[in-house]
Q: What sequence folds into this?
């Protein structure tokens, strides 16, 4: 346990230095910040929008906004990813407002070609149902589910990223999973909108 805490402290100290270098317009630092965090931001945006192109655009906008605002950023021991998630949260919300929250997403053409068998088609249908259910959760609940189950972070890591206690994360996770289950089991299951 002491080793893990020491490793976390070393990582945070390293990240503080990385942020300082980025604030000095060090392109290598920006490259590292981008490489470390892009997949997390893209995954969050994709899970929320269900659209690859929109997720790529949102991720690009997040890093552009971060680059513009890094000099005002105050490092306080919380991973920079938490700040990037807050920026992503705002861009996703803007995107959903502009595009209409409940608009049905078409399955991408490349996903259809893989649904050659009944099992594969069933998996695609299940994924679409889960994605539809996710869109009906609050943004905070979505963040918790993406961070915990898609990105595989622990309760404490998720709490640190979102600025919440482990108990608050547990509560959000519980409510989100209960809501997803209720949505999937309800009369609008499998994509039929009420």
A:
């Amino acid at each position: 346990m002491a080793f893990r805490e020491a490793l976390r402290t070393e990582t945070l100290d390293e990240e503080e230095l990385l942020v300082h270098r980025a604030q000095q317009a060090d392109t290598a630092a920006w490259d590292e910040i981008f490489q470390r965090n892009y997949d997390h931001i893209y995954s969050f945006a994709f899970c929320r929008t269900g659209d690859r192109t929109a997720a790529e655009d949102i991720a690009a906008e997040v890093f552009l906004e971060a680059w513009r605002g890094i000099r005002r950023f105050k490092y306080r021991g919380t991973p920079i990813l938490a700040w990037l998630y807050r920026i992503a949260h705002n861009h996703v919300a803007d995107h959903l407002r502009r595009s209409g929250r409940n608009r049905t997403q078409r399955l991408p053409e490349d996903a259809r070609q893989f649904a050659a068998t009944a099992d594969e088609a069933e998996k695609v249908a299940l994924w679409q149902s889960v994605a539809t259910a996710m869109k009906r959760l609050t943004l905070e609940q979505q963040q918790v589910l993406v961070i915990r189950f898609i990105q595989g972070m622990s309760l404490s890591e998720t709490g640190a990223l979102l600025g919440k206690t482990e108990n608050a994360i547990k509560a959000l996770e519980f409510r989100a999973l209960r809501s997803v289950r209720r949505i999937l089991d309800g009369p609008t299951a499998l994509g039929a909108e009420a």
